[in-house]
Amino acid sequence: MALTADDTRDWGLPLAGPGLLLDVPHEGLWAQRPALHFDAAPGYRLRVASGDQALLWVRIDGYWDRCGFLRGPPGAPWGLPSLSAAEVREVKHAPGSPLWWEAWMWRLGRALAQSEHPVLYAGRWCLRPVRTLRPPEGYRYPISTMEWRFGQPPCLPHSLEAVTRFERFWVEDWTAYGPPSEEGMFQGAVVPLRTPSPREDGRVKSWRKRSRDGTLPPAVLLYVDLLGKWLVLDGHDRIHAALLEGIPPPLLGLWPVLEEVQPSSPEGQRGVLQAAEFHLRDGARPSVVDRVNRMLLLNFQGSRRSTVTRAWPLKGGLPAWRAEVLAWRRSSAFPADAQDWEWFVAPRK
Question: Smallest Cα–Cα separation from 19: which of 255, 317, 322?
Fold first, then answer.
């Protein structure tokens, strides 16, 4: 695997600094499904799995109005090995400095390359420092095909406090109508992959001290473009510790890279301009203007970088996905709104 510097500014969002490009070969171990991967079934059914163990089942509504999530049992092998105290002490640069970020990116990039349970697959990946934002500053979920297309830049992360909870089942409203609010659903939310450690846990206490003195290593978040979410790939306890101290944790974002040249389409561009005019008529809030600008850039720039998460076909398709979900509910009781659950497990596509 080749690791090279990436200091470009063509991602279309304010990243926290330069990063790394990881070029993963199309052979050997990397040609297989990684330990942590996505399976897909018809009707926007997804499964996040580690090996053959499901960690998360997802259903997206056909009209993109809502999305349901069901957690499976955590603990299957995936991700990166735990950082030791000695490894943390080896990074002696001033916390938060460019050299500090560079040292941690190379360490964690090599860990991704050498992991016994890989999360990367063949192709190009980007690993860069990312900033967080407040939920209402994020992008709403799309309401038209002009806004959601194959491949987009990642959205900045928000709602890190999710690592302190472990909801078993929930359904999100993805409709984009109404004014922004703290309760609205925005792209970029963080989703943990395991239960939180108790605040009395030894590693959490140790990371809290590191957070106070500024030497907390960055956590790694994996972006999933179809969901518009960040999965916590490495560093659940580090994020938890920083939140307990009221200090923003340092974060590295990881996402697969799609680089393409876009053919010119006058018809498509006219449609985009009409959609922009519709959104901007009678004035618009700054967040709407920013969203329209992003849509125009996505559709008019000749070449672009974006991210697309790869998924593997789920053996057995929709019936297999549904059978797994129903079996998990029978073996593991948890509360669920009856109407939401009926929609989530419905056999229709």
Answer: 255
